[in-house]
Amino acid sequence: MAQARLAAEAIERAFPELTAELVPIVTRGDRILDRPLVEFGGKGAFISEFERALLEGRIDGAVHSAKDMPEELAKGLVIAAALPREDAGDVLVTVKGRPLPDGPFLVGTGSPRRQVQIGEMRNARCALLRGNIQTRLNKLREGEYDAILLAAAGLKRMGLLSDPEFSFERLPEKEFIPAGGQGIIAVESREHTEFSHVLAAINDPAAFRSLAAERLVLKRLGAGCTGAVGVYSYSENGSFHIKLMKGTESGILRREISGALEEYEALAAAVTEGLDHE
Ligand SMILES: NCc1[nH]cc(CCC(=O)O)c1CC(=O)O
Predict the structure, then answer these.
(1) What's the DSSP call for residue 172?
(2) ipTM of the complex in this document
(3) Can you state the angle between helices 205-221 and 264-271, rounded to 10 degrees?
(4) Ligand 1 pocket, CB under 6 A
(5) Which mutation among 1, 3, 65, 133 tests ligand 1's pocket best, with the greatest number of atoms within 8 A of CB?
(6) Could you please report the per-residue DSSP string of 207-234?
(7) Strand 77-82 to 185-190 pairing
(8) Ligand 1, closest atom to CA 181?
(9) How confident is the model at residue 47 (pLDDT cuts 50, 70, 90)?
(10) Does the entry feature the keyword Cell membrane, yes or no (predicted)?
(11) Percentage of the chain with pLDDT > 70?
């Protein structure tokens, strides 16, 4: 809802004569909190009810965390806009005054991508953790875990990164690779509507390019959200860069590629060469 408000504000800034009405929709992904996402439809669990509302014309735009969007959208629907990317990285959260033990520590996360990367980077083992950000922080506070892993973007948007009760260690996104689309808010819409120019006006081209490249990589890997896959793309010094990681039986496979900005689709294809739907 906080995200929908950001999109609504962007629309009302660009078109002062318009009013964006917010329509709350609760999805299965929000309701089922005691099982890992992969067990009940993966990313689609957050999206399908929005898509139905779009196709039935009950809403004109659906605002999503881009990283929760499935590889394939329903027919006739497109990503019409991406808002400027918030911090794309992950954060290791601990309780202030409760430092990590010297030996192996227990990290709460349900994400295979985070599990394999933290296992490689630190002396950590992982246990399932779901629920909204506040629930996750509560479980950390109650001592169920030594640390938890969360997206910086979600913490920032909720104003939690300054919470004095917790310590936040930002993991560099070029090493601890985020989920495709992490930190980006995307607006999904019907392909051609009287509303398309409104969404085009709030689109951030750099975020849109990164999202397109990262979604292409995910699609070529056939990753869904069941695989341990991370992909992060960005432009720097006039070039476009893509980094990907994939957990395999023999460890983490990492690849990266750089090239011209406008070649982002070809770069996404090239960086996944030979990895397709393995
Ligand atoms: N998986 C749930 C989810 N979807 C988007 C975010 C964070 C915000 C974002 O990436 O834009 C989160 C929380 C988290 O992973 O910590």
Answers:
(1) P
(2) 0.94
(3) 30
(4) 65, 67-68, 150-151, 153-154, 182-183
(5) 65
(6) HHHHHHHHHHHHHHHT-TTTS-EEEEEE
(7) antiparallel
(8) 10
(9) confident
(10) no
(11) 91
